[in-house]
Amino acid sequence: MDQNYFFPIQLSLIVSFSAALAVFFSGVLVGKLFTIKSFKGKIILETILMLPLVLPPSVIGYSLILIFGANSAIGQVFETRNRKYHPVHPLLQ
């Protein structure tokens, strides 16, 4: 079969595996930090980290569009660095 036929499947597997590894290791590190240390702002950081569990996916998606959209400050930085800005991944353009 054609190489382009399997590209979406391959990309999905790569992204999901990379995300699972990143979340696993960062979750273990943050969990260990929260159990060992007591620091100022710990409750605020815990609240921010728990927000994706209680907010609906549409609110999270809308927030990501606002943060990384072409009209936001972060989106404009991406646009100046990459002439062809792609909201999902700059290398896909």
UniProtKB/TrEMBL annotation:
Record-annotated ABC transmembrane type-1 domain positions: 9-93
Superkingdom, natural source: Bacteria
Main location: membrane
Database matches in InterPro entries: MetI-like, MetI-like_sf
Keyword annotations: Cell membrane, Membrane, Transmembrane, Transmembrane helix, Transport
Gene3D superfamilies: MetI-like
UniProt-annotated location(s): Cell membrane
Membrane topology: Multi-pass membrane protein
Keyword Transport in annotation: yes
Spans through the membrane: 6-31, 43-68
The protein's name: ABC-type molybdate transport system permease subunit
Species the sequence originates in: Peribacillus huizhouensis
Classification lineage: Bacteria, Bacillati, Bacillota, Bacilli, Bacillales
